[in-house]
Amino acid sequence: KFIAVLENFKYVFRGGRAPFLGRFISSIIRFMPILTIGSNGKVQLKKFVRNKESGIIEIFKQTKALISCSENNKIGIFYGSDISPALKLEKMIREDKSIKTDEIILTEITTIMVAHTGPGIFGVAVTNCPNLE
Known about the structure:
Layout: E1 2-5, H1 10-14, H2 20-28, E2 32-37, E3 43-49, H3 52-67, E4 74-79, H4 84-95, E5 103-108, H5 111-117, E6 122-127
Parallel strand pairs: 4-5
Antiparallel strand pairs: 1-2, 1-6, 2-3, 4-6
């Protein structure tokens, strides 16, 4: 399961994956979307945040909720071109003793992914946790 923050919808629209009305609305409203993949395998909008800091905090909260379901978890923290939110997330996760994980991996995502999501993407992927919805 994963949860990610996009800087904006610009690259999603550029790739033709969103309707014109959505493009118009996103040009007016400056929020960062938080996305996840549902049990049906489709990308779902989880919520919006106002800025990168709010996104980091929300991703941390979601990660904490995911990890509470199991002790044998692996966490992957991914980022586009800016490593700083990923490093902040890693620090927050390591410092929180209620999060039980076997391994934390920090990785940059591929340029193909960045082309469709934008360079400001960051997020968390968690394994061995069946309860994310």
